[in-house]
């Protein structure tokens, strides 16, 4: 397995020894070093002053050597351990030949410390450094990553664990960061170019002639034909679950590919807190630990009412803390990609070197018309739609609904005029769902208790009890064939900033007019997700919107400055699903 | 709701963040307040706070650093094949190509299309088109440009305009009208489909028809529907970018064009085996 092990570059060794004064601790001395030798140990940095250096390092995660971009030579970047209330200083140097940046995901801070080049600061030029300094006003599990070009996809991401000032209400004897990510030996820019040339490049699971006959036998010939017709009219594929797949991705836990079997240790009788972070560029994971119930205790760093589940889906950029009470035997932490094209895997074990069975991947799900927001209309036949431009319903002109955000009936939804006849918009949802209780495509009725957003309830009441003073509705849009993304059919480069008034409480309504799920992240402020009745439900920093769904959440615009607001699927962001949110006084 | 009432049993957790702009002022923190009440209005920010929130970026803008519509180019030989007639008038082998390339962004692209056949070491007929393609909707591009015919016979130049895109049921389609010298008109329509036998074995039926407004005996063309070609090619995608194939192509000439062909000792219709490679980069 040694060839799977990533190598520290020599620069890093020099760097570490050159900073002897800095505490560089393994999480639990005595355990950290007894990791499975094939899996890297992610360094942990603790304290209030941090020296971080972004550079390039050779890695071998697939059996072939490649170059990663790393922080302090480590992939993932060192875990940063902060304490709530402390003022932390992070000096970030750049040893790349291009600009870089680090962004502290989900952390409330002054705009100048947010780390988005061109919005909140200049970026960090080669050979230069930037001093981030801010007071830590929250506790929990977060992460950080580069916000420059596609550097996040090639290794510049790491965990942040913030210990609360008060004793942690989440009782655990030990905790482990489980940072999930996706790795490709291909340059992410090359992946972008391929998708622009052939957007289904990485989908090798499209339905075939054989699938048609199988469906015809199972559902009847007419039903199989009708289904092919509905998808054919839309010029879409129900197998389109991920833009980039296991065809090029290797899925990692804490930087370790499945074969390296990264191992988290525990002692008999211990309660173990697992801090799941999805630091992927493009991959949603469905996570379970066969044989073990997980009690979800926090989402996006914020405490939630404990809920016991067998499995959860974690969107890109989301974090989820669970507590488990393992018996004295090894367990597999199994994180399969949403499209079932591969998995990340680790072992939770009383001793290193043990492993449990790795379950087979679940069957690949197939999207349905319901998933696309075409449900709810009994017998709705796509062939009734006249004029194919705009696919499903682009030419349905409807008067704008007053207060679309409050229409909880699951009825028809109005679409912005900018979507009509727009080459960047290939579909529109018609009867989207507002329910939070759908575990999602591929997880319904699988015999396991699967977490949904309906299960995530903050342990606190709405921290800003005001009724939102206004509402901003944005539609998530894209064109799968042309591989372009945006809000309301408009890419970032052509969009005006979304303007918020300092101090206001407002509602953001997101309507997903695409066939993909999008995890939408607002920098600098919280996103207080509402339930279908318009009541405060759970506080998050990243709100995932499945296809065929509407999500609404409240934001208190208490952070002056220019903030990024974007889909956290990195290629969606890069190709336009991005807005500047500007909070002015 | 009940659940929210229950929340009061677990206080003290979320209060830390609230609305305390700790970096900016000594405003009281939210944790001093009861929950679920409106926070006090935020005081107007000071000049320093404002300056810190909107740092001078010296003209730098994120737009300059994020290219959401990069210029991309694709060179694709949809067909590059060896053809062999299994027909009546003896052994006949040749080479044929069909090239579709583009360079540009999402909405506007420069297209280069070319197709033709070579036999006995010379180009029997071929054409090359240079077109500007502009996206008019999610699946269609309007095309405008020029076409040049070459090979045996009289070379001709045409102005070209048409559409190209993805029809319902995922038929790739293109229809182009041409205006030549002294009002000569022509039209060409193409449609193809990809039938997935497996995800790597792909059967591609393809139909092309040509029409002309006038007789053009120099080029063996008669007025009206001149010819149609239907091909079936089975390719194996070793990679997406590289797929060898085998196929069978039926072509047929109609009306005056067929008469001209026959007069020249050719066939009205022809069937050929083809073997080739489809590749792009
Ligand atoms: Cu997205």
Automatic annotation (TrEMBL), chain A:
InterPro entries the record matches: Cu-oxidase-like_N (IPR011707), Cu-oxidase_2nd (IPR001117), Cu-oxidase_C (IPR011706), Cu-oxidase_fam (IPR045087), Cu-R_CopA (IPR006376), Cu_oxidase_Cu_BS (IPR002355), Cupredoxin (IPR008972), CuRO_2_CopA (IPR034282)
Alphabetical list of PROSITE patterns matching this protein: MULTICOPPER_OXIDASE2
Plastocyanin-like domain sequence ranges: 57-166, 175-348, 468-584
Alphabetically ordered keywords of this record: Copper, Metal-binding, Oxidoreductase
Protein name (Swiss-Prot/TrEMBL): Copper resistance system multicopper oxidase
Source organism per UniProt: Luteimonas galliterrae
Organism ancestry: Bacteria, Pseudomonadati, Pseudomonadota, Gammaproteobacteria, Lysobacterales
UniProtKB/TrEMBL annotation, chain B:
Biased composition (Polar residues): 22-32
Domain of life per record: Bacteria
Chain intervals for the UniProt region annotation (Disordered): 19-46
Cross-referenced InterPro entries: Cu-R_B_prcur (IPR007939)
Protein name in the entry: Copper resistance protein B
């Amino acid at each position: 397995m040694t060839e799977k092990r990533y190598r520290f570059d020599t620069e890093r060794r020099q760097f570490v020894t050159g900073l002897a004064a800095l505490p560089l601790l393994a999480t639990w001395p005595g355990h950290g070093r007894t990791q499975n030798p094939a899996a890297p140990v992610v360094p942990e940095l603790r304290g209030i002053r941090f020296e971080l250096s972004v550079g390039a390092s050779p890695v071998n995660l697939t059996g072939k050597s490649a170059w990663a971009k790393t922080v302090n030579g480590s992939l993932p970047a060192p875990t940063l351990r902060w304490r709530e209330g402390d003022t932390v200083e992070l000096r970030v140097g750049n040893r790349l030949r291009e600009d870089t940046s680090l962004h502290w995901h989900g952390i409330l801070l002054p705009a100048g410390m947010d780390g988005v080049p061109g919005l909140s600061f200049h970026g960090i030029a080669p050979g230069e450094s930037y001093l981030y300094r801010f007071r830590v006003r929250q506790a929990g599990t977060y992460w950080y990553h580069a916000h420059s070009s596609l550097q996040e996809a090639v290794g510049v991401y790491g965990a942040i664990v913030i210990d609360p000032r008060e004793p942690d209400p989440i009782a655990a004897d030990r905790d482990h960061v489980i940072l999930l990510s996706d790795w490709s030996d291909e340059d992410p820019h090359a992946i972008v170019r391929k998708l622009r040339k052939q957007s289904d490049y990485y989908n090798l699971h499209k339905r075939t002639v054989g699938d048609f006959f199988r469906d015809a036998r199972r559902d009847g010939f007419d039903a199989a034909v009708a289904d092919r017709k509905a998808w054919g009219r839309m010029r879409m594929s129900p197998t389109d679950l991920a833009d980039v797949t296991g065809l090029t991705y290797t899925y990692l836990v804490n930087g370790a590919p499945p074969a390296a079997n990264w191992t988290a240790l525990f002692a008999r009788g211990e309660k173990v807190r697992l801090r799941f972070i999805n630091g992927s560029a493009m991959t949603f994971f469905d996570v379970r630990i066969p044989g073990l119930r997980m009690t979800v205790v926090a989402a996006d760093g914020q405490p939630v009412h404990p809920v016991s589940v067998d499995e959860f889906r974690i969107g890109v950029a989301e974090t989820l803390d669970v507590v488990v009470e393992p018996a004295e035997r090894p367990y597999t932490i199994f994180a399969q990609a949403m499209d079932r094209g591969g998995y990340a895997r680790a072992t939770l074990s009383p001793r290193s070197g043990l492993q449990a069975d790795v379950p087979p991947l679940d069957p690949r799900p197939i999207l349905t018309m319901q998933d696309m927001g075409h449900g709810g209309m009994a017998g709705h036949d796509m062939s009734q739609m006249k004029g194919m431009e705009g696919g499903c319903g682009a030419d349905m002109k409807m008067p704008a609904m007053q207060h679309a955000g409050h229409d909880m009936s699951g009825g028809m939804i109005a679409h912005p005029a900018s979507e009509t006849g727009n080459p960047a918009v290939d579909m529109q949802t018609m009867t989207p769902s507002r329910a939070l209780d759908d575990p999602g495509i591929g997880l319904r009725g699988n015999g396991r208790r699967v977490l949904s957003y309906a299960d995530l309830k903050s342990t606190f009441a709405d921290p800003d009890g005001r009724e939102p003073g206004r509402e901003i509705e944005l539609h998530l849009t894209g064109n799968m064939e042309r591989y372009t993304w945006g809000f309301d059919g408009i890419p970032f480069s052509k969009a005006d900033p979304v303007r918020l008034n300092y101090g206001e409480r407002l509602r953001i309504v997101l309507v997903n007019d695409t066939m993909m799920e999008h995890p939408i992240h607002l920098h600098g402020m919280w996103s207080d997700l509402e339930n279908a009745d318009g009541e405060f439900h759970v506080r998050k920093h990243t709100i995932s919107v499945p296809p065929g769904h509407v999500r609404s959440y409240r934001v208190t615009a208490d952070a002056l400055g220019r903030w990024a607001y974007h889909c956290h699927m990195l290629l969606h962001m890069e190709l336009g699903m991005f807005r500047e949110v500007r909070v002015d006084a | 709701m009940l659940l929210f009432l229950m929340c009061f049993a677990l206080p003290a957790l979320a209060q830390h963040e609230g609305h305390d702009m700790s970096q900016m002022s000594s405003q009281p923190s939210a944790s001093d307040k009861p929950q679920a009440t409106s926070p006090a209005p935020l005081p107007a920010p000071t000049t320093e706070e404002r300056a810190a929130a909107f740092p001078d970026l010296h003209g730098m803008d994120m737009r300059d650093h994020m290219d959401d519509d990069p210029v991309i180019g694709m060179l694709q030989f949809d067909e590059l094949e060896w053809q062999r007639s299994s027909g009546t008038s003896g052994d006949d082998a040749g080479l044929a190509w069909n090239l579709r390339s583009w360079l540009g962004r999402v909405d506007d692209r420069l297209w280069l299309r070319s197709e033709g056949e070579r036999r006995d070491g010379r180009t029997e007929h071929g054409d090359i088109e240079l077109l500007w393609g502009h996206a008019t909707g999610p699946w269609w591009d309007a095309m405008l440009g020029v076409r040049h015919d070459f090979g045996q016979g009289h070379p001709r130049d045409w102005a070209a305009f048409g559409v190209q895109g993805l029809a319902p049921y995922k038929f790739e389609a293109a229809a182009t009208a041409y205006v030549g010298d002294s009002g000569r008109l022509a039209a060409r329509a193409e449609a193809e489909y990809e039938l997935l036998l497996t995800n790597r074995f792909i059967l591609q039926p393809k139909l092309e028809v040509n029409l002309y407004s006038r007789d053009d005996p120099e080029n063996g063309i008669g007025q009206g529907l001149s010819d149609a070609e239907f091909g079936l090619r089975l390719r194996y995608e070793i990679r997406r970018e590289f797929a060898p194939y085998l196929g069978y192509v039926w072509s047929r000439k109609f009306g005056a064009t067929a008469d001209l062909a026959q007069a020249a000792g050719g066939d009205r219709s022809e069937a050929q085996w083809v073997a080739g490679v489809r590749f792009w980069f």
